[in-house]
Amino acid sequence: MGRVGENGNRILASLLNCYLIYNSSKSSYFIKFVLIGLIFNIFIENKIEGTYEGSVVQHLESQYKKSHRFARPVLNESAAVYVTFRLNIKRLLDLKAKEHALTALIELSIIWYDEYLKWNEADYHGIRRVQIDNTQIWKPTIRIIQLIKKEQDESPITEVIVESTGRVSWYPRGIYTTPCHVDVTYFPYDKQVCKLSFGNWVHTNKEVFLKFAKWDNLSIDTFRYTTSKGDEWEITKTEQRLIRNVKYQMICCLKEDFTILEFKIYLKRNAALLSIVLLLPCCILMMINLLAAFLPPSSYEKISLALSIFLSYFVLLLIVVEHIPEGSKLPAVGELFIASLIIIALNILTSTVVYNIALKEEGDFHFQISDKSKRNLLRLAKILLVPKAYYVYNERENFEDVVNNQSLSYKETTSNSQRIEYNHRIKNWLLLASIVDRFLFCIYAILNVLTATFIFVRPNDK
Known about the structure:
The chain has nine helices and 13 strands. With 462 residues, it is α+β, with helices and mostly antiparallel strands. Helix 1 (3-22) packs antiparallel against helix 2 (29-48), helix 6 runs antiparallel to helix 9 and helix 7 (371-383) crosses helix 9. The longest helix has 41 residues, at 416-456. It is rod-shaped. Residues 55-270 form the Neurotransmitter-gated ion-channel ligand-binding domain. It is a multi-pass membrane protein.
């Protein structure tokens, strides 16, 4: 019969003796009153201490002395305590580029054997495991190396699960903030690698032997994690490894060997929203800037459009600054915006030059084109798809339409031959301006493609 059954037999024997004394004729009323109180007290104690699980907890508390809280739970001092460790990232909360810090909700699984927390299941009606407070027993001092900040969970787990074999399971969790170098070169298509390092600060490898425990359906080289679709960062891969025989730079333990548990987290930014907010407007403005080359070179709206695009970039930069992470290195999207601003500024400058070529004053009769040169220019104009209206002269076209926006003094001329000669001269200037404009369009298109390719199509080894 078990230990609880033996207690029950002693209680029944005590009650029987009290009953016999109570029925004795020699007993006084005072003695009978005391016996009734004693019987009631026995029933109360039996009700409180009658559960088998409670008896196990009381047995462990009485057996586990206070000195064991700080001493390794082994009967042989030369033996090591084997501790298995597992890590589970419940949620990735934040990755700040400015502070180079990773914040995550992490749950740990720490399992070891305690020689002082054993009992015989047969003595306690087959109770195999119980739950006790972890402040009353010894625990391995495993800490995060280079921890910035730790926030306790609203409902911290302060209990451990103890089995009859002495196996202790502890599942602490908390919000940890650790250092993580962030490289924003490829923002918003960047990838990061963060490391978490755990180590035992007190006991050496000979005293506490650390090792990994395998998660279900996972290899021994990876650990468990959870990601949500709406999170900014997505965990693509995890790795873990043991680094043994590490020497801490502490005066007390310069010659001792310790173990470090290293965990790697491979992260990828979800850039769908940032692509729409940042890159799509930039690409649209770049296309509009190129389409401005199809406006007539003699039109002032060509320069006005380029100025409007230039100012639109500055407005867009205010939005970009809110999304670009603050770091020591300029990200790729920032380089793209700077390159685009330079190209638009050059477009404004060249558009002004082309506009002045197209609107030469009437006194500029020095521009002469030979037949051979003109044939080459016409051939080049066809290749660049310059409209024929820029260089094909029609004698029936209205003179005022041809010389629109020109010097008003010329409108006072009366010689028709001078008008035809001037119209030919206007066509020659427009032909030259149109060819220069289309040639610059090709250069800017190539620059835009090369800039975007050079900025974004670069190897990212992470």
